[in-house]
Amino acid sequence: MTKNLSFQYCQKLVVLNEGLDSVLLAKRKGEADFDGVFSFIGGKMETTDETLLAGMQREKNEEVGDEVRLKVLPKESYNLLFRKKDGNSMVLPHIAGVYTGGTININEEYSDYAWVAVEGLESFEPKIGTVVEATTWAVGRLSVAAESDFVEI
Asked: Which of 131-143 are b and which e, b meaning 16 or more Cβ less than 10 Å from the residue's Cβ?
């Protein structure tokens, strides 16, 4: 007998400061996978999200507050596949973005957040294993992006 497995589309926002030398990570709380571990903000697309950009903005607003302003590069992503403990899969497109202002107010999904120096990211723990590679990709992409490539959310 085969299991009826599914997958979820779960956007992650790789948010760097304007100097591109620190990345925003949030400590997960109450999760079956990676509880107490730092990761990027973001979450699953919902049927009410009319566009990918609308889904990103909704997740940003829910997880760190609607006061937070980001400029993101929505036309490309760093894609990863994650197999959950329950056997289902998650497609994780990572979107590069820059924090431009506003007060961060994490929601109940997280217990803490930190701006972590990119140079010290290798030794920072506990973190999701793909944080370094996704951050490296985002820094490279953000450092060459034209201002016209960005969209504010």
From this structure: beebbebbbebbe
Closest CA to 99 of 142, 140, 148, 44: 142
Instruction: State the CATH number of the domain containing residue 92.
Output: 3.90.79.10
The count of structural domains within the chain is 1
Chain segment 46-80, per-residue pLDDT in tens: 999 999 899 999 999 999 999 999 999 999 999 88
Report pTM.
0.89
List the domain range (segments joined by +) for residue 78: 18-152
